[in-house]
# Entry
Amino acid sequence: MRRRAVVLLSWILAPLAVLTIVAMVVMWPHADNAQEPAGNPYAAAPGASIDTGKVVRTATEDCSLNAGGTAGSECFIAYTELPGMADVPVLISPDIVQTRGVNAGETIRFLNLSGLAAVTGADHNGPTYIFMDFVRTMPMGLLAVLYALIVVAVARWRGLRAMVGLVGAFAVLAWFILPALAQGQPPLLVALVGSSAIMFGVLYFAHGFSARTSTALLGTLFGLLVTAGLAAWAVDSAALTGTTGDYGYQLLNLTQGMSLSGMILCGLVISGLGVLNDVTITQSSAVWELYELAPHTTSRELFTSAMRIGRDHIASTVYTIAFAYAGGALPVLLMVSLFDQPLINALTGAELAEEIVRILVGSIGLVLAIPVTTAVAVAVVKATGRPASRPAAAVAADGEGSTVPERL
# Structure
């Protein structure tokens, strides 16, 4: 039975792995079809430059003094040091001043227009140094290092393997999924093939080759297939066009008419990978742990016990998905709430429809994957687990092994 269970999992997963590899090879983006790279949107014009400097001090003063503004109006100025120059007065835009401001000691990136007059031959009357953005390399780097240290300290080698697998997943995203979408490959196939490749690599690399991992992978692929089917139907039925975002029309121009609705379809499939992987591997592990504690439990009792855990996981994960998307779309939610319109129009409008469809599609695939994963895990663990001796009390209760005739 143990051999048959392992062979059955291999018969199912091995062809799927081969099919995934073949599909990736066939759809792999070719350099001949690659789009011409667009220019740097932050590149400066001739005579101008983008410089980086550390803020020495800040002040609110008359705009005509250093910022080149109108006399009598106040401007927020960040005096920033540059090599070989005195502290240059960088004009901070009002939205930055209102939301956060700029503090001494911070590193900022700004537009330097001091050499523009020499190129154009015309006098420059506006501000000479204009704030562009903060330099966030140090805090984000420290946060990434802290995250890695905590994961390795708590999860040890498995946590380290998971982070390496995450790097591989982003490599698939960057080298296969995104270029394939830009070159006009079918979005649904790109999403399925890319997501399957990510799950094969991440699960086996992080959790090792075992029947437990294979069971979780089978449940994940089932949930992925359900999510892809629902996403394909929902994108068409709900008429999600993808033109409501900030970069919709830019993508149309840069990719020569790429399907924005197809991009949404691919995004709906990929967005549920993390949570789907989480619930399937947890549910598979729960079945194995329950079996280790009570190996004499029947398949039905084991499935029922594991599904109690699964139902709690479903409830908490549905909240997780909803709140994660709500947090990401908080500016849109706030903007919609300020409009005077019926609630049903707000929920089904272009601004929120994509997020709501993403929540519903991801949640349905997640919920359906749990009982399937549990059922497969129970069947596999019963077939691959070692037969356990029954407790002595149970043997005495039903008379097994007794030499006394039953009638006595």
Observations:
- Residues 388-408 have pLDDT under 50 and may be disordered.
